[in-house]
């Protein structure tokens, strides 16, 4: 099979299209013919550069969220059959106590390939009416947003939430999950067209945090009360303190990313005087939330923003596009034509 293989860390050009052996599914596994996989800033670009926070073994194949068609099943597998349309879930093995989960495309070879093998428990059927690129994006981000906002940050109906990076994959999911939970949403992004796209997903208000006063606008929109939750996945040293300052008393900032740098100033006086909370989490992916997101997408109630779809051979170009922040929505690689 063809796969994009990394044999050294560095710029996009270290990714090379190679012929490698097609994996054979073992007991409890399925082999998926990959039809779509998205390009993620942290789990793809940062990993490729060699700057990821945990060691990555080389040679490596990226791709945390492939979707496709079951090509073969291993011994003992009855839940799936060849021809089934499936998404894959990124946690190949859930975290044990005080440990990091085993993640597809990080700890094991991922979906930048024509085929990928995964445990059958890490697959979920795609409903009719949902194509592979949409299924990939929904399964990657919607369950994480549900987990972070509903279960960890405790977002409630009527709360205000400030969604940072609102036109990105996780930001788009955050907007729609927050609205599903009955919250009021401020979508914040770094360009007017991205703010407009995020508001079109259902946000109640939008802020361009590159040209407007993020804290001041958030306070104006909430009538000086501040937001109950900041949904953050950037970790930018300029933006993070402004988002944190928009929290109401008792508010929570939950974050799952640091591609903006990761080292940020913190107003500790606000932290304790306002009894705020900062939560770091990569969320939990629950099958029920994957089902909920995919069903909503099939019914037209959940939308994703896709900037473009490129062939697998253009992986380096895809990484450059994502790094340049030049588009709106996800960039998708298509290893095998639908």
What does this molecule look like?
The chain has helices spanning 41-49, 132-152, 169-180, 192-200, 214-221, 239-244, 268-273, 287-298, 315-324; strands spanning 2-6, 15-19, 29-38, 67-73, 85-88, 91-93, 102-103, 115-119, 123-125, 160-163, 184-189, 205-208, 227-232, 247-255, 277-280, 306-311, 330-334. The chain is of the alpha/beta class and 338 residues long. It has two domains: 2-125 and 305-334, Alpha-Beta Complex (Quinone Oxidoreductase, Chain A, domain 1), CATH 3.90.180.10; 144-280, Alpha-Beta Complex (Quinone Oxidoreductase, Chain A, domain 1). Strands 3, 4, 5, 8, 9, 16 and 17 form a seven-stranded mixed sheet that branches. A six-stranded parallel sheet has the order 12-11-10-13-14-15, sandwiched between helices. A two-stranded antiparallel sheet has the order 1-2. The longest helix has 21 residues, at 132-152. The chain is globular and about 60 Å long. The model has no long low-confidence stretch (mean pLDDT 94).
For the structure shown, list the relevant keywords.
338 residues; alpha/beta; Quinone Oxidoreductase, Chain A, domain 1; 2 domains; 7-stranded mixed β-sheet; 6-stranded parallel β-sheet; 9 helices; 17 strands; 26% strand; globular
């Amino acid at each position: 099979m063809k796969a994009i293989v990394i044999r050294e860390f560095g710029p996009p050009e270290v990714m090379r299209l190679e012929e490698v052996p097609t994996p054979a599914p073992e007991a409890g596994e399925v082999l998926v013919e990959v039809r779509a996989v998205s390009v993620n800033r942290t789990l793809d670009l940062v990993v490729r550069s060699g700057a990821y926070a945990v060691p990555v073994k080389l040679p490596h194949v990226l791709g945390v969220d492939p979707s496709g068609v079951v090509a073969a099943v291993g011994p003992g597998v009855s839940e799936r059959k060849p021809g089934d349309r499936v998404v894959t879930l990124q946690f190949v093995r859930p975290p044990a106590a005080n440990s990091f989960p085993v993640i597809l495309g990080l700890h094991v070879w991922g979906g930048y390939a024509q085929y990928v093998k995964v445990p059958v428990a890490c697959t979920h059927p795609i409903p009719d009416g949902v194509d592979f690129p949409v299924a990939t994006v929904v399964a990657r981000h919607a369950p994480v947003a549900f987990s972070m906002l509903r279960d960890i940050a405790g977002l409630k109906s009527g709360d205000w939430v400030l969604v940072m990076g609102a036109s990105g994959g996780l930001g788009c999911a955050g907007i729609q999950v927050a609205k599903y939970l009955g919250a009021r949403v401020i979508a914040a992004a770094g360009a007017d067209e991205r703010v407009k796209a995020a508001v079109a997903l259902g946000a109640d208000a939008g802020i361009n945090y590159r040209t407007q006063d993020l804290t001041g606008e958030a306070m104006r929109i909430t009538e000086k009360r501040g937001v109950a939750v900041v949904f953050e996945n950037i970790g930018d040293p300029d933006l993070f303190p402004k988002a944190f300052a928009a929290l109401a008393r008792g508010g929570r900032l939950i974050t799952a990313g640091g591609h903006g740098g990761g080292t940020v100033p913190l107003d500790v006086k606000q932290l304790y005087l306002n009894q705020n909370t900062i939560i770091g989490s990569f969320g939990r992916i629950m099958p029920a939330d994957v089902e909920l997101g995919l069903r909503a997408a099939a019914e037209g109630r959940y939308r994703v923003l896709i900037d473009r779809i490129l062939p697998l051979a253009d992986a380096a170009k895809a990484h450059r596009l994502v790094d340049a922040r030049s588009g709106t929505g996800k960039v998708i690689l298509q290893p095998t034509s639908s």
